From TrEMBL:
InterPro entries in the cross-refs: Znf_CCHC_sf
Lineage of source species: Eukaryota, Viridiplantae, Streptophyta, Embryophyta, Tracheophyta
Compositional bias segments (type: Basic residues): 162-172
Protein name, as recorded: CCHC-type domain-containing protein
GO molecular function: nucleic acid binding; zinc ion binding
Composition skew (Basic and acidic residues), residue ranges: 173-188
Region (Disordered): 160-205
Amino acid sequence: MKGHGLGLRIVLKQEKKEYVLEHPCPKDLAASATTAERRAHEKHCNDWLDVGYLKLATMSPELQRQYEDSDAFSMIEGLHGMFESQARVERYNTSKALLGSKLELATDVILQSLPPSFEPFIMNYHMNSMDKTLTELHVMLKTAKDSVKKTTTHVMMIQRDSKKRKCKGKGKGKAEDRIQKPKTDAKPKAGPFPSDKCFHCGDSGHWSRNYQKYLEEK
C-alpha cells in the first residue's frame, strides 16, 4: 500500500495534480463567477475525479469497498488516521514484547537507553558479568544516578575554583607590577681626593677635619 501510494504521488506530481490530495472537493461556484473562475473550478473537479479513481486503483479490495464513494482528499485523510492508529498499536505491541522477553534482552534495552553519563556504570556492569533482575537493576541505577549527580557537582566546583584562582593570580601580578621598588640610598662619597683643598691651610690633598695640625690647634 505504501509503495503504491508513493508511486501514485510521483505520477500526480508529474501530471500537476498532486494538489488534489491536499485540498477538499471544490464547492459550487456562485452565479456571478467569472469565466476564469469557472474554468479553474471545472479543472479542479476533473482532476478530483481522476485522482480519486487512481487512488482507488492502488488500494486493496477491502479498502476499495470502504472508500469507493469517497473523494481523493477524504481517502487520504481516512488512510492517515487508520495507519497512524495501526502504527501506534504496533509500537505498543513491540514495546510489550520487549518488556516481556528474556531478562537479558530487557536488560540490554535498558542499558542501551542510558545517557552517556552512565558509561562507567555500563562498563562496570559488563566487566563484572552482572546478572540482575529488573528490580535489582532499577535500584542500582538509582544509586548510580545519585553518584553521577555528586560527581558532576564536584567537577563543576573544581572548575569554578580553578577559574577564581587564575583570576586572582592575574590580578596579583598586575598589582605587584604597579608597586614601585624603593630607591636605595646612594653610597657616601669617598675622599678626600687630590684636588680637594683644606679650608685651614689651603693645601690640596686633605680636608681640615682630617688635618692633624688643625685638630691639635682646635
